[in-house]
Structures are given as C-alpha cells and as structure tokens.
Amino acid sequence: MFGISFSELITIALIAVVLLKPKDLPYIMKGFKKFYRKIMQFKEDMRPYYGEFYKEVEEEVRYVLDDKGVAHEAHDISEWKEKKRNKSN
C-alpha cells in the first residue's frame, strides 16, 4: 500500500518488539488497527470523487503521447494500449 514490502514490515515489527515493552504491544497494535481502518474508510469514501475527477480529466484530454513521443487522439489510446499489451505478451 505504501510501498513497504513484507520483509520491511517484519523488520519494523521486530524492532518494535525489542524497543517497546511486550505488555504495551497489544495496545499499540489496537491503535494501529484503528488508524488503518480510518485510512481504509477514508479511501473508500473518496472513491466516488476520484471517479468523477478521472471522468473530467478524460473529457479534457485531447492527445496522449506514446513512448516514442507520437501524439494520439484520446479515443485512439485504448487501441494503442491494447497493441502495447499484445506486444509485451
């Protein structure tokens, strides 16, 4: 989610166990869990607004540049993406 790998999370957890008192860890984890839930709820609450934003941007975009710097009209980009996907497979 934040660009943190599983091994980095394990390292952070081990450091937390060493630096913090074991009896405090359940309270700290509960606090982290509440924080994480709030972040996820915020993300879900914002999802409709992002959808509207992307629709507005799509309407405003007229040309898109590909890897070679060639401009394509916005309606052509889906065909260009499909060609690119087929090339990479």
Descriptive notes:
The chain has 89 residues and is mainly alpha-helical. The chain has one domain (24-88). Helices cover 70% and strands 7% of the residues. The protein contains 3 helices and 2 strands. It has helices spanning 6-19, 25-60, 77-88, and strands spanning 63-65, 71-73. The longest helix has 36 residues, at 25-60. The mean pLDDT is 78.
Please count the beta strands (DSSP E, at least 2 residues each). 2
Radius of gyration: 22 Å
Helix segment tally: 3
Structural class estimated from helices and strands: mainly alpha
Mean pLDDT across the residues is 78
Sheet with the most strands: spatial strand order: 1-2
Order of helices and strands: HHEEH
Helical fraction equals 55-70%
From the spread of the alpha carbons, the general shape counts as elongated
The count of domains is 1
Which ranges are low-confidence, i.e. pLDDT below 50, for 5 or more consecutive residues?
none
